[in-house]
Specification:
5% strand; ribosomal protein; Ribosomal_mL41
């Protein structure tokens, strides 16, 4: 029995992981990369002898500087949905005006749902 050409062509489509690579392949843990940016270097180094096998170096550890809270709160930028956002009564009428007072119920949905024509001989048991 011989493998088919289609079977062999799909073998290289699998993602390359350290388990699938050769014995020297190391993909990394991406700890030295910023989310959208450039490589900044490892935050520490491996130690051969000692209790800890990896030692963080203070001068290599990344830190992020954020603006003061007052400046963030005073900014025009807001999250996607602000927690303090409220609808006006006109906006509520525009959105919810077509629904009944109690909201969508089974009865209301049954009245509004589109129906296919049912033959009369099948409609009654």
């Amino acid at each position: 029995m011989f493998p088919t050409l289609a079977r062999l062509s799909k073998a290289s489509r699998l993602p390359l992981t350290p388990k699938r690579g050769n014995k020297d392949y190391y993909k990394g843990t991406r700890q030295a990369y910023l989310p959208g940016g450039h490589r900044t270097g490892a935050p520490g180094k491996h130690v051969v002898r000692g209790k800890a096998k990896y030692r963080l170096l203070d001068e290599n550890v990344r830190f992020f500087v954020a603006p003061p809270v007052e400046e963030i709160n005073g900014s025009m930028l807001r999250p996607y949905v602000d927690l303090s956002a409220r609808l006006t009564s006109a906006q509520k009428r525009e959105i919810f005006g077509k629904l009944p007072r109690g909201g969508m119920s089974g009865e209301y949905y049954y009245q509004k749902a589109p129906r296919r024509d049912i033959p009369e001989d099948l409609s009654q048991p």
